[in-house]
Target: Aminotransferase
Amino acid sequence: MSEDFYRIKRLPPYVIAEVNAMRHAARQAGRDIIDLGMGNPDQPPPPHVIDKLCEVARKPNAHGYSQSKGIPGLRRAQASYYQRRFGVELDPQSEIVVTMGSKEGLASFATAITAPGDVVLAPSPSYPIHTFGFIIAGATIRSVPTTPGEEYWRELDRAMQYTVPRPTMLVVNYPSNPTAEVVDLEFYQRVVDWARENGVWVISDLAYSELYFDGVPTPSIMQAEGAKEVAVEFTSMSKTYSMAGWRMGFAVGNRELIAALTRVKSYLDYGAFTPIQAAACAALNGPQDIIESNRQLYQKRRDVLVESFGRAGWEIPPPAASMFAWAKLPKGFESMGSLEFSKRLIEEADVAVAAGVGYGEEGEGYVRIAMVENEQRIRQAARNIKRFLAKSGG
Ligand SMILES: Cc1ncc(COP(=O)(O)O)c(C=O)c1O
Model:
């Protein structure tokens, strides 16, 4: 019997999982590891959202299968969000589908629209589902830069010119995980124009729609003229409302793409637990204070991270958005590689970060630092790292 499974062969071991296992082992051994590795929000959702979950969960009729595409009220709530936040009108019936987190949404979407051998343009470094969702679905990836500079456009054009078969999809993710880079609406307009010209679908991941700093809101690709012709966009309640474990997200945009995702999902799932969907409505329609308070919380942590790590001898470029900083390995450690460096940080400084190589070849030489511990612990991490840098000397 062959264990040479076609898809499994194409999935390298999840690098993040390797570092997570080390962190877990260190904690089991009683060590206090400061975990700046995984992008797992440390705050709870607002109380009224939890109350709604409990209230609906007590109803005897709330426990059956739900609707795969999401209950109508939740799709309407997402339409209202896009209207008030981006000024974009969406039809809740044909242009919105609820997903069980945006990760599931992206994976099901890849299954829905990919034919074996399709070429997908995906950024490197990137959040793994942006490449592996499509690889699992049988696609080939052609990497393009994550940094949205002129080189980005040159690479897109080169990819269209030289790749056979011609690429059919482009993935964009800003604010970027892992690099925290951001774009403006002009960039999205150029992407949409380029995609229309080249006959390419665009998949935008806007998981960090609300975690922007210094008062500069991040745009949606849906604001670009003609976006609905070519684009679909995924958003998530995980970071915006600190609901990561609830598994709640959305896809919006082009009707054909939404219909394809809805169709595949109708075969794969019965939708999220109804009380979760009802509580998600309460989050989207109710008081929005948590968005601003989360933004301030992460911005403050960013400032503490940049300042305290800088004093420890490690310059961290301040991220403009997201919950991550993307930093080059400190001076003298460059040749070690990001995985080895991350392991040494756990072993010798009790600090977990995510190795950049886990986000693709272009991520080598970097680590991603998640701002998911409080300010005091970020300062403690900086003190530990200072000692580690002094001892190891690079
Ligand atoms: C860019 C990006 N997209 C999607 C996700 C997945 O989010 P969700 O919890 O909605 O599945 C994450 C989670 O970290 C992310 O960083």
User: Anything to note?
Assistant: The pocket of pyridoxal-5'-phosphate is lined by residues 39, 101-103, 127, 173, 177, 205, 207, 236, 238, 244, 249 (CB under 6 Å). The longest helix spans residues 289-311. Residues 59 and 275 are 9 Å apart (CA to CA). The longest strand covers residues 119-124.
